[in-house]
Amino acid sequence: MPLLLPTLGLYLLAAFAEIGGCFAVWAWLRLGKSPLWLVAGALCLALFAYLLTRSQAEFAGRAYAAYGGIYIGASILWLWLIERQIPTRWDLIGGTLCVIGMAVILLGPALQK
């Protein structure tokens, strides 16, 4: 359980790096931004991959599964804060279910001990 907060922080940083990298490609292709956005996007995606390997999970698949809930929550936060779109109740309900799933994956083994 003591590793939970650092793990959540790491996943949150990884999520914003991944979302930022993907958004850079989105901005280039869909918003007509400069191709230089792709450089920033590639750097963000490399940072994302590095951060996810720092997880304390024993197996990559488990790290990715737990990270998925944080990614979805962070994406909804991005929608609201960066894109200035208010999340719908369905965004919030779905995001909450995903975060609950992430908590089960991360906390389940610790509670079993």
From TrEMBL:
It is found in: Cell membrane. Keywords: Cell membrane, Membrane, Transmembrane, Transmembrane helix. It comes from the Bacteria. The chain crosses the membrane at residues 34-52, 64-81, 93-111. The keyword Nuclease does not apply. InterPro entries: EmrE-like (IPR037185), UPF0060 (IPR003844). Belongs to the UPF0060 family. This is YnfA family protein. It comes from Thioclava kandeliae. The lineage of its organism: Bacteria, Pseudomonadati, Pseudomonadota, Alphaproteobacteria, Rhodobacterales.
